[in-house]
Structure prediction request, 213 residues.
Amino acid sequence: MFTGIIEEIGIIKSINHNSLGIDFVISADKIFSDLKLGDSVAVNGCCQTVTNISNKTFTVQAVKETVDLTNFSDLKINDEVNLERALTLQTRLGGHLVAGHVDGVGNIVSIQNSGNSTIFEISANENIIKYMIYKGSITINGVSLTICELSEKSFKVSIIPHTIENTTFKNLKVGDKVNLEPDMVAKYIEKFMTKEDKQESKITLEFLKENGF
Prediction:
């Protein structure tokens, strides 16, 4: 589990395609303070397991399903990626609960300056858009952000300069692909409200309203 607060930017040092997927060797700095083999690290928002550590680099293995659902196939040597170690019980939850399970990619539609922030518009398919709400949370390349505008085919986020400079958002261009993970709470609510075993769920809109949702 993660928070969507990026700890540092890593750099892709090598890429090895194999029968299982893709192995990435990534250089970093801060996360090595307590990084161990088997630890989980969110790489551009995708939860990956550390399989090797050597000389300020670590290796992760992205399996085929991960490659198919993310922008990992577009990564090149020397590309920058957002990194976050898994949260602990002592971690402040500055963003929101992020599973690191990317649902798919979106495309940057436009980038516009707006006062002291930058507005990114991102297109996404309906299977991702349906879990979004205005002012709700969204994880983009591992960064926890708030949706400031929403339509049937795209959404917008407003990003402050600090976030731009300390994440890979500073490198993004129109047309680039980004990893998306909607807020998991919406998925649970959808599940509870669907029929299971041919019996209608007891969770209704009236029940949710009565209980503060």
Observations:
- The two ends are 23 Å apart (CA to CA).
- Residues 117 and 127 are 28 Å apart (CA to CA).
